[in-house]
Amino acid sequence: MLARSWKGGWVFELGGVGVPGENPPCPSRRPPYSLTSKRMKCQILQMIEESYVADGIQFDQYVLKTLLGILVRVVLILLTMRSSSDGFVCEKDAVHCHTSLIIDNAFTMIDPINGPLFVDEGTLRPILQPDKEVSIENVITADGWNTTLPLLTANKSMPGPPIFLYQNQTITIIVQNNLINEAVTIHWHGIDQLGWPAMDGVAFVTQCPILPGQFFNYTFQPRFSGTYWYHSHVGNQRDMGLYGAFIVLKREGEVPINNQHIIHLQEWNHKFGPITLLKANLNNTSSSSESILINGKGEFENNEAPHEVFQLDKSNSHLFRMIGVGSADVLLFSVPGIPLIVKETDGYPFVPKTVDEIIIYPAERYDFELDLKNIREGVYNMTVHILERKYLEKRQNVFGLGLINITNSLSLPVNSSASTSNIKTVLNCPFEVFPNETKIECIPVSFLKSRPSFRLEFDIIPPTQETFTHFLNFGFPKEKEYSSINGKKFIWPTVSALTQPSELNTSCANCDAETSCECTHALNLKSGSEIIMVLSNIGTGAVITHPIHMHGHTFEVLKMGFPSVNETGFLIPNNDIQCSPTLANNKSQCNNATWRNATWNDYRSIPNINVEDPVRKDTIVVPYGGYSIIRIWATNPGVWFMHCHIDQHMIEGMALMLNESFENIGDLPIGLQTCHNFKNQPSAPKSFFQASEENISESQVNTQNSQILELQSRSMENNVIVNGVEEKAPE
Ligand SMILES: [Cu+2]
C-alpha cells in the first residue's frame, strides 16, 4: 500500500497490488486526505486498463494488473526520489531533469499525529496532551500563533522545497493540483523563458489555470545562473504559503550547495486567507501584518516559537540567497555587527557593495556573503523590520529574528580593525537621502554597476535599430481607489491570452489622459526593437512606492529619479516628468506623461543615464514621487505580464500584458490546453447542453485518458517534452 507522508513524498508499505476481481470505485477526494495517494494510484491503474480495452487488446487481468502495478510503483518511486520538502538537485551531468510539486491544502500548528499544537517556551506541545513534546519536523509553525490557519503549500511545506539545477539544463516540473476548491498555476519568477512563452505560468495570460485534481508539465531551460523563485500566479495564493526557491547554479566557481543558505523573508498576516481577509474587510478591522517570518518561522508577541538557525563555519565561504516572498510589506534586513557583501540582485551580478542593511521589497532577491574577518565565533542575530511604505519609518511593534551560529574549525585570527563608523549604509532606498535620518547613507540600486565582463546574448530574433519609449505611471487615480497603470485598471482575460488571442478584447478606448477606466490593458512591443520604459509614480494617484515586476525579461536599470526632501522632512515629487500639457502634476492623473525637457526624448542625452554598466533586475522599485528608466530589447516573442508585486495591487488591476512580437511566437506546444469564456452564456441553455453531450462519445473519453497517461509516462524520459510534444530546445 502507498500512504502519503506529511511532507509530500511517498511512503511505501507492504500490501497487494493486482488482486483479480471487479474494480472497486476509487476513493473520493473528501477528507481524510491520506486517501489521496490511494485514489491517484487507483485512477492511474484504471486509466491504464481502460486504454488497453479501448484498443481492443484484452490481457489476463491478474497478470496485467501485477505488471502495471510494478510499473506504477517504479514511476512513483522516481517521483519520490525527486520530490521532497528537502529540495531537489539536478545532477550536474544531466541534460534534462524531472521533479514534481504537489499542491495541497495544509494548516499551521497542526501535527499529523498529535493534532493542534501550542508553543510553550520554545517547545511545541499538543493542546490535548500538554505534557508531551512534539518535533517541529512535520509542523509548519509560521509565527506559532496557537490558532490554526489554512495554507496552500507545495509538497506540504512552507516554504516549498527548493529546486536547484545548473545553467542550460532543461527541467520538467509536474505540478499536481490536489487542492479541494481552487485552481492554480506556478510562475518561475525571474526566468525569462526565452523561446518557452507557454511555460511562464500566469493564469489567463500564458495558460489556463490547473483545475483541482489535474496537473500541468512545466518544461523549460533556464540560461542564467542566480537566485529565482516559484510561486502561484492565481489570486493571493502566494500569501498563503505557495512559494519556494528556484536556484540556477553556475557551471564553474559556485559556492558548494551545502554552504548556500536560502533566506525567504516575508511578513505574516493572520488574515491572509481569502475568507478571513473578506471578514476583516467587512468588519473594517486593520489588515496590517502581525509578525515576520524567516523561512516560514517567526514569533508572535514574544511567544518563543522556533526561529530559523543558520550554521556557518568561518573557515568556509558561505553564500546567502535572500528572497522577498512577502505580500506587500517593505522589509529591512541586517545582521547587526556583521557587514553584508552584496554581489547579485535578481540573478545578476554587480560590482560587490558592502553595506550594513538591505531594504527588500516583495519579489526582489539579494545575494550576499558575510564579511567575517573581524568576527569572533558565536551566535549572531539576523534582524528584520517592517518599514512603512512611504517614508520607511520602522514599525516598532513587529520584529523578525533568525540566528546565525558562527564556528571556526581552523581557528582563523580575528582582525582587530573593525569599523567604528556610526553611519549605516543601506542598499535599495527609494530615495537618495533618507528623510529625517542623518545617520543613513542610501545606495539606490541604480547606483550599482554591473560586472564589466557580463554580457547577455539574445537569440530568438535579432535586435533592430528602432527605439520606442513608453511612459507608464503606477498609482491610484480616481479618488485613490483605482490600482492602475496609466489610469487603466487591468481586467483579467477570460481565456488564456497566449493560446486564444482572437478571443481577447484589449480595447482601452474609454481611457484618456485624465480619465481612468477598466480594460484588458496590453502594450504592443515591436519585434526586435529597443524598448525604453519610464516607470513613474507621480500625479494624483501617487501614494506609496511600488515594486514592479516584468515577466519574460530582465531589464537594465538605466536611471532612477527620486523625490527630494524639504527642510521639514517631507518628500517633494520629482519634476523631470510632465504629466499634462495643461495641468500641474499634482492635479493630473499622469496617464499620458512626457519628459519636461524634450531633449530627453533621445534617452542617451538624459543627464546621468547609465548605458555602460547598468545593473540588471526583474523587479524594480518605482519610488513614490519619482521614476525608474529601464531598457529591454523586444526579442523574446510572447505575452508577458507586468505588474506591481504587492499582491493586492496586482489583483486590483495594477498590471498589463506586454504583447511582444506575437507574430514570431511560433508553434505553441501541441495539446496546450485552451479555456472557455463563461461570460458568454448560451442563449438557449437546454439545446446547448444536449448538443454538448451528443458530441462526447465514450471512445473519445478513453482516447483522452490514454493520451494523459502517455504524457505522464513520457515526461519521465530524457526527452524535451512540453505537454506531450517533443520540441527542439533553443540553441
Ligand atoms: Cu503596488
From TrEMBL:
GO terms for cellular component: plasma membrane. Residues 150-252, 261-396, 499-660 form the Plastocyanin-like domain. It comes from the Eukaryota. The keyword Metal-binding applies. Keywords: Copper, Metal-binding, Oxidoreductase. GO terms for molecular function: copper ion binding; oxidoreductase activity. Pfam families: Cu-oxidase (PF00394), Cu-oxidase_2 (PF07731), Cu-oxidase_3 (PF07732). SUPFAM superfamilies: Cupredoxins. One of its GO terms (biological process) is iron ion transport. InterPro entries: Cu-oxidase-like_N, Cu-oxidase_2nd, Cu-oxidase_C, Cu-oxidase_fam, Cu_oxidase_CS, Cu_oxidase_Cu_BS, Cupredoxin. PROSITE patterns: MULTICOPPER_OXIDASE1, MULTICOPPER_OXIDASE2. The keyword Transport does not apply. Belongs to the multicopper oxidase family. This is Laccase-24. It comes from Magallana gigas (Pacific oyster).
